[in-house]
């Protein structure tokens, strides 16, 4: 026998009922079933759905609140909401999107929009140290954090260096693929960051309105030998991204 939390399975065995409720709702939040900002039914209604007392429900909600997954707001417009978390992007150390999310306990995902072989334009060729018109593999993806769109990513790789790349699964870490298949995992990058308003086409892909503020990142990534292996333009949703930089004093001599 099982119950449901707004469609999420709640097993009848396995510890105190409040803990199982918290686990079921927490899983729904982490896999994107309940997106940031989602409002749950009022406590009396949710308790009735689950067939438990309000005290038991409040114990479960307290667990979720301590885990940083929900906010409980009092007042006329209050309620229980999935917390609108922010992706912290640490610029002090180099790591791909998947690794950054793993460090924060989130699940990285990707929706591949386009993958093709195409001649490099002047900007891509210059960044990758190629002749203009050289063939590159272009991969455009929407990157997801626990099911929620966070950024629009367009990456280009020298086709001559990575034969067969487009035949691989491209909804996983591309840096992982470069390392595992070719021994060329990026180790450092140069990034230029500026705030812009998202255009209509990109806004539709990200599920926001045209003109929404985004952080535009232009990145050239290099392998351990210092050879450029990727040129990318990323659009991070600014309301879901926070940049972190560690600064250190430089001793004078």
What does the largest sheet look like?
6 strands, antiparallel
Q: At the first level of CATH, what is the class of the largest domain?
A: Alpha Beta
What's the CATH H-level homologous superfamily of the largest domain?
Chorismate lyase-like
Number of strands: 12
CATH architecture of the largest domain: 3-Layer(aba) Sandwich
Strand order of the largest sheet: 6-7-8-11-10-9
Number of helices: 7
Question: Can you give the mean pLDDT?
Answer: 87
Strand fraction equals 25-35%
What do we call the CATH topology of the largest domain?
Chorismate lyase
Distance between the termini: 72 Å
Reading the helices and strands in chain order gives EEHHHEEEHEHEEHEHEEE
Helix percent band: 25-40%
Quickly give the structural class: alpha+beta
C-alpha-based Rg, rounded: 22 Å
Number of domains: 2
Overall spatial form = elongated
Low-confidence stretches: none
Could you characterize the architecture of this molecule?
There is one protein chain. The chain has 253 residues and is an alpha+beta fold. It folds into 2 domains: 2-82, Arc Repressor Mutant, subunit A, CATH 1.10.10.10; 87-244, Chorismate lyase-like (Chorismate lyase, 3-Layer(aba) Sandwich), CATH 3.40.1410. The chain has 7 helices and 12 strands. The chain has helices at residues 17-30, 43-50, 54-66, 97-103, 122-128, 174-182, 200-206; strands at 2-5, 8-11, 70-73, 79-82, 87-90, 108-119, 135-145, 148-158, 188-197, 213-222, 228-237, 241-244. The strands form 4 sheets. A 6-stranded antiparallel β-sheet has the order 6-7-8-11-10-9. Helix 1 crosses helix 3 (54-66). It is elongated, with a radius of gyration of 22 Å. The protein starts with a strand and ends in a 9-residue tail after the last strand. The mean pLDDT is 87.
């Amino acid at each position: 026998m099982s119950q449901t939390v707004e469609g999420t399975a709640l097993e009848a065995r396995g510890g105190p009922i409040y803990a199982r409720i918290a686990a079921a709702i927490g899983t729904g939040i982490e896999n994107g079933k309940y997106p940031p900002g989602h409002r749950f039914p009022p406590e009396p209604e949710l308790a009735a759905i689950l067939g438990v007392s309000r005290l038991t429900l409040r114990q479960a909600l307290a667990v979720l609140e301590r885990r940083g997954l929900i906010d409980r707001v009092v007042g006329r417009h209050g309620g229980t909401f999935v917390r609108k978390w922010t992706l912290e992007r640490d610029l002090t150390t180099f790591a791909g999107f998947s690794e950054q999310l793993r460090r924060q306990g989130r699940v990285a995902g990707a929706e591949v929009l386009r993958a093709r072989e195409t001649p490099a334009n002047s900007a891509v060729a210059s960044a990758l140290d190629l002749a203009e018109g050289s063939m590159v593999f272009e991969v455009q993806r929407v990157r997801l954090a626990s099911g929620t769109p966070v950024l629009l990513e367009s990456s280009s790789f020298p086709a001559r260096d990575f034969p067969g790349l487009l035949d691989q699964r491209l909804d996983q870490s591309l840096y992982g693929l470069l390392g595992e298949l070719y021994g060329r995992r990026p180790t450092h990058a140069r990034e230029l960051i500026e705030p812009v308003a998202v255009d209509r086409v990109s806004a539709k892909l990200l599920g926001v309105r045209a003109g929404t503020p985004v952080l535009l990142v232009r990145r050239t990534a290099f392998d351990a030998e210092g050879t450029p292996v990727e040129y990318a333009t990323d659009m991070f949703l600014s309301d879901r991204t926070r940049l972190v930089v560690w600064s250190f004093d430089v001793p004078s001599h």
